[in-house]
Amino acid sequence: MRKGNRFILFLLATFVVFIITMGTTGLKTSAVMGEDIKTHHKKEHAPIRSLMFILSSHTSSILDAIMIGDYDSVQKEATIVADKTKGLMSSFFPQGEKAGEWINETGIDPNNEKHLKSVKEDIGKYVHKIIDSTNNIAQASRKHSIVDTYNEFDSMLRKTCFKCHETYRSKWPDWPEWMQISGG
């Protein structure tokens, strides 16, 4: 058999395997296909989830930049995290509306105005702490010290991000399915 014919047979066999694989895989992915996608995304509380994903991405970029000593990128990413964090309050507590659906997963009574006001003030404090922390990270990075910059980063995660999550998120394994899938 000639070399060209073998190649064509190889391509044809690869295509057949691809089609078979897609057919069987498609049956297993119906949870995120078609009509089910609407249900999937309704559970995500999209504005908050999207914003948290953005914050997580830029926070990871801060760590990456710290680890390679790219202090300009540390400052740039810290500034982005601070800017994006400012949108948290309007995502958690839309102006003129009740708290978003996220509140139902915390065990907080969304109809208890006094408690809700306290939660809003508390989350506001976390927002300010993140902004202050990112300023501290940027300031430490100007010294070109990996250790000082990392310590500020670690402090932000432990004292602000994780504390807020411990307070206002369901405990594992009671996280909503969408959080379990994405890792939190």
How would you summarize what this structure contains?
With 184 residues, this protein is mainly alpha-helical. 73% of the residues lie in helices and 0% in strands. Helix 6 (113-141) runs antiparallel to helix 7 (146-168).
What does this structure look like?
It contains 8 helices and no strands. With 184 residues, the protein is mainly alpha-helical. Helix 6 packs antiparallel against helix 7. It is flat and about 80 Å long.
From the structure above, extract its key features.
184 residues; mainly alpha; flat
What layout of secondary structure does this protein have?
Layout: H1 3-28, H2 36-42, H3 46-68, H4 71-85, H5 88-92, H6 113-141, H7 146-168, H8 177-182
Helix pairs in contact: 3-4, 3-7, 4-6, 6-7
| SS element count, helices | 8
**Termini separation:** 55 Å
Topology pattern, helix = H, strand = E: HHHHHHHH
- How large, in whole angstroms, is the Cα Rg? 23 Å
Q: What is the helix content?
A: over 70%
Assembly category? single chain
How would you sum up the global shape?
flat
Mean pLDDT: 78
Main sheet characteristics = none
Structural class: mainly alpha
Low-confidence stretches: 24-44
What fraction strand?
under 5%
The counted number of beta strands is: 0
